[in-house]
Amino acid sequence: MAKFKNHTMHNQSQKWHRNGIKKPQSQRYKSLKSVDPKFLRNMCFAKKHNKKGLKKMQTNNAKAMTARAETIKALVKPKEVKPKIPKGDSHKLNGLAYTTHPKLRERLYPPKSKAKAQTKAQAVAATPAPAPASTHAAQVPKSPQAPTACQCEDGRTGMTPGLLSAWA
Question: Where does the record place the region Disordered (predicted)?
Answer without folding.
Answer: 1-33, 80-105, 118-157
